[in-house]
Design a protein that fits this description.
Low-confidence stretches: 2-28
Order of helices and strands: HEEEHEHEEEEEEEH
Mean pLDDT: 84
Strand content: 35-45%
Helix content: 10-25%
Distance between the termini: 27 Å
Strand order of the largest sheet: 1-2-3-4-5-9-10-11
Number of domains: 1
Radius of gyration: 17 Å
Number of helices: 4
Number of strands: 11
Length: 207
């Protein structure tokens, strides 16, 4: 499943890079970055936590309408696929998890995620869980945000776009988790509206 996605992603990326990333069209320059919100995304703040070897940790915080949601993000070490194209584009994969934080009130965050992910239903009878594991695929580093959503290698920035695979079988959902460690921002971003309800229900247990 992941390899099939890579092949599709790489084909689109090659066309896009040929058309849009030519140095003669878009000169390399460093952006002064700030977070750009978009309808299909929900941004939040992140703070680094002490790392454990190759595992990276962040505390994520989302405050809105007097409510504050808190959760931790944990990313394990990643490695490239064996094919040359994945290595050329710095496409890597690994495992990670979200961890619940005590005292979190995610009522507003879940409502905002429902809209952004185009979920049809709010989760019912939410059961808190200690963690939520996932498989991740990252698509290069040093990306910049596009005003209408999405990311680009030119001009360079500090974003790392990451696709998550959450759950298994019929309950597997996909969502983007994009991180910028320099401006200390992260965001959840829609992959496909068909995954909205599944992703929202999975995240509700740990946010």
């Amino acid at each position: 499943m992941i390899r099939a996605f890579f092949r599709c992603y790489l084909a689109v990326s090659l066309v896009a890079m040929t058309a849009c990333h030519s140095p003669s069209v878009r000169p390399k320059e460093q952006l002064t970055e700030h977070y750009i919100s978009s309808p299909g995304s929900v941004g939040f703040d992140i703070e680094p936590l002490p790392s454990d070897g190759s595992v990276q940790h962040w505390l994520a915080t989302y405050s809105s309408k007097g409510k504050t949601a808190k959760f931790r993000i944990e990313l394990g070490s990643s490695k490239p696929l064996e094919d040359k194209e994945s290595k050329d584009f710095d496409i890597r994969h690994g495992e990670g998890r979200f961890l619940a934080e005590p005292g979190s009130d995610a009522s507003v965050l879940l409502a905002d995620l429902k809209s952004a992910l185009e979920a049809k239903n709010s989760p019912e009878k939410i059961q808190r869980a200690r963690d939520l594991p996932f498989v991740f695929v990252s698509f290069g580093q040093n990306q910049s945000q596009e005003p209408g959503g999405g990311f680009n290698a030119q001009p360079p920035g500090h974003w790392t776009p990451i696709k998550l695979f959450i759950g298994k079988g019929e309950q597997e959902g996909q969502v983007f988790l994009n991180l910028n460690l320099v401006i200390k921002k992260g965001e959840f971003s829609i992959k496909d509206a068909d995954y909205g309800d599944i992703v929202l229900a999975q995240l509700a247990g740990v946010l």
